[in-house]
Amino acid sequence: MKNTDTHTRFIKETAASLGFDYCGIAKAVRLDEDARRLEQWLNQGMHGSMKYMENHFELRVDPGKLVPGARSVITLLQNYYPSEQQDTGSPRIAKYAFGNDYHEIIRAKMNDFLARIREKIGDVDGRGFVDSAPVLERAWARKSGLGWIGKNGNLLTPKNGSFFFIATLITNLELSYDDPFARDHCGSCTRCIDACPTDAILPGKVVDGSKCISYFTIELKDSLIPDEMKGKFDDWAFGCDTCQDVCPWNRFSKPHKEAGLHPIPEILNLATTEWEHMTEESFRKIFRHSALSRTKWKGIQRNLKFLKEE
């Protein structure tokens, strides 16, 4: 058996042992088609005030710019679908933020992953990323054979839907490559487009980020959310899962088994008034390891006030 095949098998077995649900591998090449789509998206201003997305364009589309001599892009998926749901009537929080911050959980796994690869194979150069660098994760996931890009812009797997975190390891190690996922299984379905509360999902698998509820409740740093959005948030106070919740493929979602992602009790149980009366000190204590810390106490209070005014 060739070294590439032996190394590839070891990497996939190691990924599974670390609790990743999927592992796919693609050859490291410049993503020319995705570069054109990204450039057009940026030129149309669909990133809103997320100016950081204009930076490091070449790094986003060329893995060799992130890891000189890159030969392989390894994509890993971590299921985050929860076994428990929020109480009806509570301010709605996107499922990915139910537990501890996934950046910390997956970053630790990626460090372990790379360490095991080096211990087994030798002096391997590589960098792992999980929303921490300009990487087109979904494009690499498709090229690695893990799924297709849905009309809502999410990666969809045929067996388990879309509730996954995506992590990427770019390395100079030559491996055996998976075939890209060729088919699009969305067909004529438009449920995500029809259900989007702010009409952010456009034909052609384009999502106008500047209209997305996740953008307004997390990324927007202004003190006020535009008045034209009033009445459209469906009680979402942090992120939004509407397009995933209505997707037929997510009927195959299964609860994750990652202890660190188990829901923080307050997220499941707090009523609106309890959120509104929470002090900044309490917020910091309860959510110190949560993705909710991204928007800070002031951001959550702004979002709650906006929902109350709807």
Structure commentary:
[4Fe-4S] cluster 2 binds at residues 196, 212, 240, 243. This is Epoxyqueuosine reductase. It catalyses: epoxyqueuosine(34) in tRNA + AH2 = queuosine(34) in tRNA + A + H2O. Cob(II)alamin binds at residues 60, 131, 152, 155, 166, 214, 240-241. The model has no long low-confidence stretch (mean pLDDT 94). By secondary structure, the chain is an alpha+beta fold. It contains 13 helices and ten strands. 35% of the residues lie in helices and 13% in strands. Helix 1 (3-17) runs antiparallel to helix 5 (102-121). The strands form four sheets. It has a four-stranded antiparallel sheet with strand order 1-2-7-4, with helices on both faces. Strands 3-10 form a two-stranded parallel sheet. Strands 5-6 form a two-stranded antiparallel sheet. It has helices at 3-17, 32-43, 57-61, 63-66, 102-121, 137-143, 191-195, 213-219, 242-245, 265-269, 272-276, 280-286, 296-309; strands at 22-27, 72-79, 92-93, 126-129, 148-149, 155-156, 164-171, 201-202, 206-207, 236-238. A hairpin with a 3-residue loop joins strand 8 (201-202) and strand 9.
Structure characteristics:
single chain; 310 residues; alpha+beta; four-stranded antiparallel β-sheet; 13 helices; globular
Short recap of the structure:
This protein has one domain (1-310). Helix content is 35%, strand content 13%.
Strands, total number? 10
User: What's the helix-strand series?
Assistant: HEHHHEEHEHEEEHEEHEHHHHH
Total DSSP helices: 13
Structural class given helices, strands, pairing?
alpha+beta
Count of the domains: 1
Average of pLDDT: 94
For the biggest β-sheet, the strand order reads 1-2-7-4
Organism: Terrimonas ginsenosidimutans
EC number: 1.17.99.6
Subcellular location: Cytoplasm
GO molecular function: epoxyqueuosine reductase activity
